[in-house]
Structure formats: C-alpha cells, structure tokens
Amino acid sequence: MHARWKIDGFLPARDIDNQQTPINLFGFKDGTGNAPATDTHLMDDLVWITDKQNEPQWCLGGSYQAVRLIRFALEFWDRTPLEDQENNFGRHRATGAPIGNEARNGLT
C-alpha cells in the first residue's frame, strides 16, 4: 500500500492522550465535537470497520477518511466583529463554550 495523495495541515500531530483542544486559524477551538480516541469501545463502533458492517472483506480493520479542504479568508475574518464570529461558530471564542453557556461542555 502506498499514499496516492497527501496535503499538510496546519496543526501538529498530537499524542491521543492530550486532552487540549487545539485552536484553528480563526482563533476558535477546533475538534470540540470529536469522540475521545482513548475510548476503544467507542472507536470500535464509530471508526473501525468490522465484520458486523456490510463492507468488503479487504476493508476489515480499516477505516474511511473524508477530506474537506477549507480556504481561510483571514483578512476578511479579522475585520468581522467578534459577536458575528461567535455566531458563525455557535461558540464563544475565549472559552469554546456554546453560545449562551459558560462552560465548554455546555453545562452552566
């Protein structure tokens, strides 16, 4: 097997046990909704292809990846009022909490 396509991202590779949520180029926490990679049972259900799914035999033990390229219009974004930025993301930039909540996990 060999890579047919590759593109570098802007975030460095991290240890899966690191629970710090990285900040994206817009200044917001990125990956807040990701499942914890340390939960092996959840990863087995959500990520890894098993014989319980209707997939080809050669896929077993693998996973799929969807790639979305995002072009950041940073100059325009930087001139956008903070309230508009937060409404676009649905989160407070400073804390990562959902709009209307104080805590990042949504609990007040």
What does this structure look like?
- Its EC number is 1.11.1.-.
- Residues 86-108 are annotated as: Disordered.
- The model has no long low-confidence stretch (mean pLDDT 82).
- This protein has one domain (13-89).
- The protein is an all-alpha fold.
- The chain is extended.
- It has helices at 40-46, 74-78, 82-89.
- The chain has three helices and no strands.
- The longest helix is centred in the last third of the chain and has 8 residues, at 82-89.
Series of H and E elements: HHH
Estimate the helix proportion, in percent: 10-25%
**What is the overall pLDDT average?**
82
Low-pLDDT residue spans: none
Number of domains: 1
The radius of gyration is 18 Å
- Termini separation (Å)? 48 Å
Strand content: under 5%
The biggest sheet amounts to: none
Computed structural class = mainly alpha
Structure summary, number of beta strands: 0
- How many helices in DSSP terms? 3
Basic shape: extended
Enzyme class: oxidoreductase
Keywords: Heme, Iron, Metal-binding, Oxidoreductase, Peroxidase, Signal
GO molecular function: heme binding; metal ion binding; peroxidase activity
InterPro entries: Dimeric_a/b-barrel, Dyp_perox_C, Dyp_peroxidase
How would you summarize what this structure contains?
The protein is mostly helical and 108 residues long. 19% of the residues lie in helices and 0% in strands. This is Dyp-type peroxidase.
